[in-house]
Amino acid sequence: MAKNLILWLVIAVVLMMVFQNISGGESATNKLAYSTFLEQVKRGDIREVTIDQSTNEISGVRNNNDAFVTQIPYLDMKLMDELLMQGNVIVSGKKPEEQSFLASIFINWFPMLLLIGVWIFFMRQMQGGGGKGAMSFGKSKARLLGEDQIKTTFADVAGCDEAKEDVSELVDFLRDPTKFQKLGGKIPKGVLMVGPPGTGKTLLAKAIAGEAKVPFFSISGSDFVEMFVGVGASRVRDMFDQAKKSSPCIIFIDEIDAVGRKRGAGHGGGHDEREQTLNQMLVEMDGFEGHEGIIVIAATNRPDVLDPALLRPGRFDRQVMVGLPDIRGREQILKVHMRKVPLGDNVVASLIARGTPGFSGADLANLVNEAALFAARTNKRVVSMEEFDKAKDKIMMGSERKSMVMSEEEKTNTAYHEAGHAIVGRLVPKHDPVYKVSIIPRGRALGVTMYLPEQDKYSNSREELESRIATLFGGRIAEVITLGEAGVTTGASNDIERATNIARKMVTSWGLSPKMGPINYEDEENEMFMGGSGKPKSAETVRDIDAEIRLLIDRNYAAAEKILRDNLDVLEAMKDALMKYETIDAKQIDDLMNRVEVRPPADWETDDKAGSDKPSGGASINAGGEAKDAPDSDTSDVTH
Ligand SMILES: Nc1ncnc2c1ncn2[C@@H]1O[C@H](COP(=O)(O)OP(=O)(O)OP(=O)(O)O)[C@@H](O)[C@H]1O
Ligand SMILES: [Zn+2]
């Protein structure tokens, strides 16, 4: 189609040029300046002139038979007198040129035609490449991947073994539907994949098609939702018709919640279209008996909003959970994506996996990609652990903002604050090891302290929670001790919020306060989901809860303060190290805690940032009690 359009454009341009030549193309004759022409008139050299009133051009012939043209620069009233005075000059006029009929139509209509052409072109584009008819409103937009186009296999999907096992039966069925039936297998029709975004639902569905070597239709639920009533429904019909022609095959509907929300749940009208589409889908799913060999796989991360009719037997009656990967899953996913990049010797996937709790498969794919970009930017041949670390920090905490100018005083405050977190984090009874402390601003935070969990945590003991509260206060206490009450900054607001939240949860919903007992006091928060008990708490209960929260906070604040007061020398040393290196790693923290000379970081000498980011002499001019930007990001493995 695109080629056609270009061809037409070329033809049009050529035609234009041809017409131009016909209308204005008299062979070039001797061009005269108007003054010369006048002189020649006066001299009597001119025999004949023709004056073109539309172009103010005079063409003519001299006595010696030379042809000439000239342009009248202004309306010269005296010219006519002059010419007529000569007596023997033949003067004639010329009417404005008549364009040929075709040419004028063409020139007038050309822009119109062009616009119409472009419009048709885009309409076709929007209808998707597949449609053969010009306006295929009712055609499905499903993209079809032929069985030989799918390269994805189960080997590409890592870290969700249960899900793979759940769907392996589908592969058997698709490979040979009739055999499967003879063996007494129950024919699956619809499978609902449930899980958070980026966990590989699409990937898994594609892998099923790849393993079974069947075609793969994919469409997003939102593609069905159109302005025009009935379009979505006819798209559904069309999609199933297409699928029946190429069965056995898989139909994959991403974001099914876009069409599959509970019917009648919307406020007011305007949902007819979506409901019709949903009804049509139910009709189609009931309409085939399974021997067609079509499996409909739908994906959603909101199974709770789906219309129950979708989940009834014979429809999406199987659910496959695709959850966030655990530490081993993350390692495997990393390895899958690392196959595509040249790796340095020091890359340990398991270590990266440990530092990335909560990452989805898509996040991990992105991590590998970012690391490769970092390596490319510094012209490295391989991607090594440093790049993975940088990429991870960037994804978790936003890019470093090295250009942000902090005053010397602010930097010192931040260094004390982060050192306080790090030291308390190291010395409380139960805390994930501190592995990095930095006073380079990131995102909205002025500095960060990062912890490396040993394994994914699904629950926390009371001791762990109290240790965390103490560590969160480490930053504020370090400021109080070193800067005095007057110098304390607002940098701890996020720490305080998080510590308070933990303490509150311990008392009101985790049953970890002996005095309040294992009772849930958090009606307000759960109201949305559980309906709430609706019973207001007595004033006395409220007071008791507050007292218990205060007790937890005070106890751990005191514990953290004791740790820091006992280690004032380490606090000073760590502040100095941070001021010097800006980022210190686990090894250097070890050195500091053991009170030995701090080794510079491995990349200190080679890294060109060394020295250059020392603040310039005048940096401390803008000192003063400037408020710190309160960070609001909340990754549990980081404090600011
Ligand atoms: N388990 C996994 N193994 C390997 N790669 C994965 C995995 N999960 C996700 N990825 C990577 O993340 C990308 C996006 O995943 P995918 O589109 O399948 O997620 P999804 O669950 O369908 O997300 P959404 O709900 O947002 O559509 C994949 O192309 C792949 O590169
Ligand atoms: Zn802090």
Q: Can you characterise this structure?
A:
The chain is of the alpha/beta class and 640 residues long. Helices cover 48% and strands 11% of the residues. It contains 22 helices and 15 strands. Helix 1 (2-24) packs antiparallel against helix 4 (101-126) and helix 9 (231-245) runs parallel beside helix 11. The longest helix has 28 residues, at 539-566. The protein is extended and about 125 Å long. The chain starts with a helix and ends with a strand. The model is unreliable at 128-136, 525-532 and 606-635 (pLDDT under 50). The protein binds adenosine-5'-triphosphate and zinc ion. Zinc ion binds next to helix 16. Acts as a processive, ATP-dependent zinc metallopeptidase for both cytoplasmic and membrane proteins. Plays a role in the quality control of integral membrane proteins. The active site is at residue 418. Its cofactor is Zn(2+).
What are the salient characteristics of this protein?
alpha/beta, 15 strands, five-stranded mixed sheet, 640 residues, single chain, AAA+_ATPase, binds adenosine-5'-triphosphate, six-stranded mixed sheet, 22 helices, Helicase, Ruva Protein, domain 3, binds zinc ion, extended, Rossmann fold, Methane Monooxygenase Hydroxylase, Chain G, domain 1
